[in-house]
Design a protein that fits this description.
The protein contains 13 helices and 11 strands. It is of the alpha/beta class.
Amino acid sequence: MISKIVSIKNEVAKVVVGQEKMVDSLLIAFLCEGHILIEGVPGLAKTTTVNALAKALGLNFKRAQFTPDLLPSDILGAEIYDPQNNSFKIKKGPIFTNLLLADEINRAPAKVQSALLEVMQEKQVTLGDTTFKLKPPFFVMATQNPVEQEGVYQLPEAQLDRFMLKLIIGYNTKEQELEIARRISSGKIEEIQAVVSPEDLDALKDAIKNIHVDEQVEEYMIELVNATRYPEEYGLDALKNYIQFGASPRVSIDMFKAVKAMAFMRGKDFVTPVDVAYIAKELMRHRIVLTYEAEAEGITTDQIIQQVLETVAIP
């Protein structure tokens, strides 16, 4: 089954140079039926990557650009009056797809953000008197642009918790950027082919669920999460002044899923603490609420997670 993962990544690599962590994270979130939030400056191939992934998976893809004047109906759809038939009909919004890119989600007001996040959780949309179940798979990749400071509506912590992973991506290397420029300027962009079927996707998800996690590794993951809530119990007294709220219970659930996918994608049938450490920051960085003291001193959630990883005993 790992050959299917390699085939998907090879197809995406036809149009995306580098950004392996983003591609891996997208696949992990998708195969674990979670959602992902990506933060990065413009031009880092976020839209291109999710579009390429949709094509490689043979799924439908839609993109919604979030703006300050956006309404929930622009995302979900609405009832529209048809004067010819003297009746109302349903017009479905871009949410009715398999892979949705919610571009610059922090540009839209809270009402629109809440509408999207509710659908992400419930996997259904109510328009008028009718409730529509979204056809699986349903996967949301939302992006945030850290450059924008004016006219943005930051996602509340409780809503950030709905995302399985939060990925922060940076620039490509000089060599990768040179390759990107050469490809685009020459027009030599290969066409992406669908390399898996719906049955293959189901088989991949089942294979991931069957990955073995030793009891000690399970306890280790719970200890990591618990250390963000009660750092003084782990000799991390200094962190107590920096953490207002530790990681939520959703972290534990998502971590148990994600590390299995991580191990599977590395060609293993069991999880190691290395798999946990590799993805711990993506799982927890958006689910820890810092105090004003931490923000004043420039302390980040990544620094706190790193200290936790270095302190909690590895099995």
